[in-house]
Design brief:
Elements (H helix, E strand, L loop, with lengths): L9 H26 L8 H12 L4 E4 L8 E5 L7 E7 L12 H18 L6 E7 L7 H7 L8 E3 L2 E3 L10 E10 L15 H16 L6 E9 L10 E10 L2 H22 L2 E6 L11 H13 L18 H7 L2 E2 L2 E3 L12 H6 L3 H22 L2 H12 L3
Parallel strand pairs: 3-4, 3-5, 5-11, 6-12
Antiparallel strand pairs: 1-2, 2-4, 7-9, 7-10, 8-9
Helix pairs in contact: 1-3, 1-10, 3-10, 4-8, 5-6, 7-10, 7-11
Length: 399
Amino acid sequence: MLESSPKLDPESARIVAKVDEGFAEACALAHWMAAHPELALEEREASARYVAWLEARGFAVERGVAGMDTAFLARRGPAGAPFHAVLLAEMDALPEIGHACGHNLSGPASLLAAHALAASLPEDVLRLVVAGAPAEEIGVGKRRLVEAGVFRDVHVVMMAHASDMRRAHRLFLGNHKFEFVYHGRASHAAAYPEQGLNALDAVVQLFVAIGALRQQLPRAARIHGVVSDGGRVPNVIPERAAARVWVRALDDATLEATTARVVACARGAAEASGTRLEILRTEAESPAMRPNLALAAVYRRQLDRFGLVETSHAADSSIGSSDITHVSQVVPTIHPNFPIVRSGERLELHTRAFAEATTGPEGEAGLREAARSLALTVRELARSPGLRAEVAEEHRHPR
C-alpha cells in the first residue's frame, strides 16, 4: 500500500496531490487500452489518446517522429532550461494476450507524472518531454528514436514498468537475432537419397552444436532458438531449412564473444552437411543495458518516502531484453519495476492473468506508485545540480 500522507516538502506534496488529482482519468485510459489492445506500430488510437491528454495540459506535440506514425514528442518548458528530462510512454500490446506486459499502465503512469510536474514546477527549471514510444514488443521503437537523435541534449530518460516485483535498478540482456538458412539440394528420399543435400540435417547439427556449447557458456549468456523451416514432406530431402536463434548476454563483450561461437556452430553445420549457409539479421536487436546506479538511487529515495520496500530480486534476475537499452547507451536511463501482486497468486509478465490484473486494484495501485515516483525523481533532479552532475559522471564513467 502507498502511504497516503508521508512527510513531504510543499513542492513534493503538490506533485503528489496533482498525481492523485489526475489518477482516475489515467486509470480510465489504462482500462480503455486493456479493452482495445493495439499491436506494435499500429497503436493509432492509444497514441491519439496520449496526445490528447498531453495537449490538454499545455504540451506542444510533434507527431510521426522517427518515421513512425504513432511515435510523438510532447514538450513543455523552454529549450534553455537547466534540466531536460524525458519520460517514455510505451503503448503496444502483445498478439492474442493483449496488455500482458502492462504497457497500459506504464504509458499512462508517465503521462500522469508529466501532468503533475507540469502543474507543479516552474517552467524555467525544467524542459520536460514525453516521448510516445511504440513497438517495444518487437524491439524497434526506441532504437529508431535514438537513431533520429531524439535524446540529444537530454539529461535523463526514465519510465517505470509493471512486474511482479519492485526494484529501482534492473538490467536487461543485450541480444543478437539470427535466422540461419541452409540451402541444399532436393531429391527423392527413398529412390535417390545420394543425390540430395539435406538442409534439415544442417539445422539439426546446428542445435546439437549449440547444445554442446551451452555447457561452456558463462552464466551471463543465453542462447535459444526454434526451427523456422524444416522441410515440407518426409519423402523429399529438404533443399531449404532454417532456424531462428537468439543470443543474449548481460554485457556487450560476452554478447559478442558468444555470438561469434554460435555463428561458428552455424558455419560448421553447413560444412558438415555440404549445404550453403545464409545468415539473416534483424533490426530488432539491442545492446545490454548500461546501468546508472546514481539515477536509480534517486528513484529509490522516492520509494523510501512512501515506505515502499523493494523486493529481494537482484537487478539481473528474471530479466529479458528491451529496446530501452539503446537509449541507455546515449543518455542516463532507468527502467524501474513496480509490482502487481494479488494475494495467493503468482503473476508473471506475458500471461493472460497479468493482463487481467492490470485493470484491477493491484494494477491501479502500481500506476499510482509509478507516477508518483517518476514525478518526484524528476523534481529532485530538477532542484539539485549536484545530483545531475553525479548522474552524468556515472554515465561517462560507469561503475
